[in-house]
Design goal:
Strand content: 15-25%
Order of helices and strands: EEEEEEHHEEHEHEHEEEEHHEHHH
Distance between the termini: 29 Å
Number of strands: 15
Largest sheet: 11 strands, mixed
Length: 435
């Protein structure tokens, strides 16, 4: 059954700043008896001294204040962000990134020392999954050493006040000394928001008023099941050799939501749950699905794409790709019930997550799709692909005999380092989903 959602207008409500005296500790915060308090040295009071028989006042109010940082400890930052307008997650000097904003805010709040703001190694700073240009994250985890006192609830409020509205911190949780969000991430869930007209079996059905039929929707679901399990994704990435073992990736499940109509555009949401994704993997999975559903690619092209011989797999637009959730199952199983550490789970923040996701992520995706017709424009490039293997280049579409790689959407920046443990589709890693 189709449901209708009105334009996104849900505001993410932040708690107003509260004084240290009135603030209350969150139930998930653990007392930290070892942590130092934030101390400022007070200027000494003015003193009267006698000089040559007369009394003079010595002014000591000019004594500079000295900030004493609390003891540095390891924390998990539970956060989300809209990737639109950012050049990815990872810090890159001189480039606007999510980590640039986060580290700047941490520094402003005195949660890290100034000398550590550009040397993340000293902070043991690590993100669970990297996202690339334009890719958003609803539930991301960052681990880092921070100089925080025991009142973590106030720290969250203060940090959110220092961050832009398109980045949110849901919580800061004390973690184990050697916690690494990347290593402890058991799996990742990516979401691809796709206008349903992209799956229309007739090339002419490419318009915002299209509504997917139950039969076509089931065909999409059935086809995507072919990607579940361990497959060779050599043809779904770039800058990898055919024998590179990192091309083999395991996908636990793929589900497709019922269609949702936002204003005049109907979307289906594709959720891919895997241990990790390689660069471009998710976007090419979506691209292959669209090509077959629209009868552009031959039926046997899917099986050929899992072989070591290079073949053409379309790269779907990065718009619509979201890192939906990082799961810390391994960490929670080992430390979450030891009585000393708080599990890294998302349930306590679910309402806030959904509000932020609706307004700052899905709302942005819809507005850009409506304004720029991103998917519609990309569909026009499918005819330029040649779905072939080896040196055989058959024309799939009548009248098209041009070169095999005219899809400019595939020509993305491949010179940057690839983090094979995550993935994002917009620019490089694996769908963090890089896809």
């Amino acid at each position: 059954m189709m449901t209708t959602e009105s334009p996104v207008d849900i505001e993410l409500k932040r708690s107003p700043g509260e004084s240290e005296k009135d603030s209350k500790r969150s139930k998930t915060d653990q007392p930290d008896e070892e942590a130092s308090e934030v101390i400022k040295t007070e200027p000494t009071a003015d003193k009267n001294i006698e000089v040559n028989g007369s009394t003079e006042t010595k002014d000591s109010t000019t004594t500079p204040e000295r900030f004493v940082y609390p003891t540095k400890k390891k924390y998990a930052i539970m956060m989300g962000f809209c990737g639109d307008g950012y050049r990815g997650m990872a810090l890159n000097v001189g480039v606007n990134t999510i980590e640039e904003e986060l580290i700047s805010a941490l520094s402003k709040c005195n949660f890290i020392k100034p000398e550590n703001a550009r040397e993340l190694g000293k902070m043991y700073f690590q993100r669970a999954s990297r996202t690339d240009k334009g890719v958003s994250a609803a539930r991301q985890v960052v681990s880092s050493n921070l100089n925080l006192g025991p009142d973590l609830k106030s720290a969250v409020v203060k940090l959110n006040e220092a961050l832009p509205n398109d980045i949110v911190v849901y919580d800061i949780i004390k973690a184990t000394k050697h916690f690494d969000s990347h290593k402890f991430a058991s799996s990742r869930v990516y979401e691809y928001n796709c206008p349903s007209f992209a799956m229309a079996p007739t090339l002419g059905d490419t318009w915002s008023g299209y509504r997917i039929t139950p039969e076509v929707l089931q065909n999409v679901r059935d086809f995507l099941l072919n990607f579940v399990g361990t497959k060779n994704y050599y043809n779904y990435t770039s800058n990898k050799s055919a024998n590179d073992p990192s091309c083999f990736r395991y996908i636990r499940s793929i589900t497709v939501s019922d269609p949702v109509v936002v204003e005049d555009i109907e979307y289906i949401r594709i959720f891919l749950h895997g241990d990790s994704f390689i660069y471009h993997q998710i976007r090419k999975i979506v691209g292959m699905t669209i090509a077959v559903m629209r009868n552009v690619a031959p039926s046997d092209h899917l099986e050929k794409s899992f072989q070591k011989e290079r073949c053409d797999v379309p790269l779907a637009p990065g718009l619509g790709l979201v890192l939906d959730e990082v799961k810390m199952t391994r960490y929670n199983k080992k430390f979450g019930k030891d009585g000393m550490h708080t599990p890294l789970e998302w349930e306590p923040y679910e309402e806030t997550v959904q509000d932020f996701k609706l307004k700052h992520i899905l709302g942005v995706i819809h507005r850009k799709e409506k304004a720029e017709s991103t998917m519609f424009q990309w569909l026009q490039t499918l005819k330029k692909h040649k779905f072939y293997t080896g040196d055989v280049l058959p024309d799939i579409l009548t009248g098209d005999s041009k070169s095999t790689d005219n899809d400019t959407s595939n020509k993305e920046e491949n010179s940057k380092p690839v983090d094979n443990s995550e993935s994002t589709e917009s620019s490089k890693a694996a769908e963090n989903p890089s896809g």
